[in-house]
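pinging the channel bc i need a second pair of eyes. not urgent but kinda urgent?? the chain im working w is below, pasted from the shared doc
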Amino acid sequence: MSIRHVVVETGLGPVTLVARGEAVTGLYFSRHVGRPSPEAFGPEAVVSADPLLGEAARQLREYLAGERWEFDLPFTAEGDAFQHAVWDIVKAIQCGETTTYGRIAEQLGGRDLARDVGKAVGANPLCVFVPCHRVVGSTGSLTGYAGGLRRKRALLEHEQSRVRVGRSS
């Protein structure tokens, strides 16, 4: 199968899920910074007729409903070696936790790489699935998110509610 997409309505607004072959390649919000042109998404598929995109939509909805905290989908993302190194670190950030651009830069060789880390995080085509919303500024401030700071805040608060429930149980 070639590239195709579906649009899923969520509490965060419409989300475009993109797949190429048997892997999810993109998750984009409307007004997403760096959102590819619609032509790059391929034709729109029927979510109920596309097993991969249907499963991606189901898992995204379960996550947003607080019924799932990890994704079990095949992903692939286009990017250079540095971007993939950053995204691998971002994938390892646990739900309910955050890290900073500087900490990721230190893991990759030095704090002087923080701006490059920020660019790589911003270029993540699989936001939410690769949880770049969990990367914050050095003071814990919410800085940059391709889906907008309102969504970043909502995602972090959503995950913190899981942590609070887990502690009280």
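so Residues 81-168 form a domain with the Arc Repressor Mutant, subunit A fold (CATH 1.10.10.10). and The first strand starts at residue 4 and ends at 10. — does that match what u expected or am i reading it wrong
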